[in-house]
């Protein structure tokens, strides 16, 4: 299966599948999703903004996500995983609070005092650079849905097949260019998959 050269190329290819969108609001999940969304917004001729999300990690193993939270939304938990770990949402309340503080910091960095664009009655395209477990995308989609949009599309270059299918219940449409059965990590489907900084995100937002 062909790899994407980088996030920008993935975004350009993804944009061709989104040309029927009617004056959409394009929201990228930072940081990686912004590099995919920038060429989409340019191709569609619409503004780009961010929807900040944070993973909620298992306290003993923070890289293991037991949920996620998006700005403007409530925490969304993987309740099956929590039960398997013998935990409840209340067990990770301190982690949730910590991630909310970091989320607020990133919102200030990326958007300053400017609020999210008005989403009520609008078509919204949520963009990320790939879907592994889909936790942050699910939290983002639910936060967007709560704002009353007319239609929501989740657009990603690549995603685990099971995750893509599960998220079809959270959006009106999920556009994924690649859904490989041997998916192990998002980065394996890109030739260049550098980590982005806050400065990179701000630069990309300034280019659209």
TrEMBL record:
The keyword Transferase appears for this protein: yes
Transmembrane segments: none
Domain annotation Phosphoribosyltransferase: ranges: 9-174
CDD domains assigned to the protein according to its UniProt record, in alphabetical order: PRTases_typeI (cd06223)
InterPro entries, A to Z: PRTase-like, PRTase_dom
One Pfam family matching this protein: Pribosyltran
Protein keywords: Transferase
Source taxonomy: Bacteria, Bacillati, Actinomycetota, Actinomycetes, Streptosporangiales
Protein's name according to its UniProt entry: Putative phosphoribosyl transferase
Gene Ontology MF annotations: transferase activity
Species name: Nonomuraea wenchangensis
């Amino acid at each position: 299966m062909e790899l994407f050269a980088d996030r920008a190329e993935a975004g350009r290819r993804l944009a061709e599948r989104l040309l029927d969108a009617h004056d959409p609001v394009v929201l990228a999940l930072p940081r990686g999703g912004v590099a995919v969304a920038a060429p989409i917004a340019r191709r569609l001729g619409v503004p780009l903004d961010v929807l900040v999300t944070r993973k909620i990690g298992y306290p003993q193993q923070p890289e293991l996500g037991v949920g996620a939270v998006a700005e403007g939304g409530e925490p969304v938990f993987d309740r099956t995983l929590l039960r398997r770990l013998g935990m409840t949402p209340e067990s990770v309340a301190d982690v949730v609070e910590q991630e909310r503080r970091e989320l607020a910091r990133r919102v200030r960095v990326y958007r300053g005092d400017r609020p999210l664009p008005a989403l009520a009655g609008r078509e919204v395209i949520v963009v990320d650079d790939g879907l592994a477990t889909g936790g942050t995308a699910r939290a983002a989609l639910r936060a967007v849905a709560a704002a009353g949009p007319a239609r929501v599309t989740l657009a990603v270059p690549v995603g685990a097949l099971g995750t893509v299918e599960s998220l079809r219940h959270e959006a009106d449409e999920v556009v994924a260019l690649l859904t490989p059965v041997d998916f192990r990590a998002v980065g394996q489907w890109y030739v260049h998959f550098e980590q982005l900084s806050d400065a990179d995100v701000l630069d990309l937002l300034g280019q659209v």
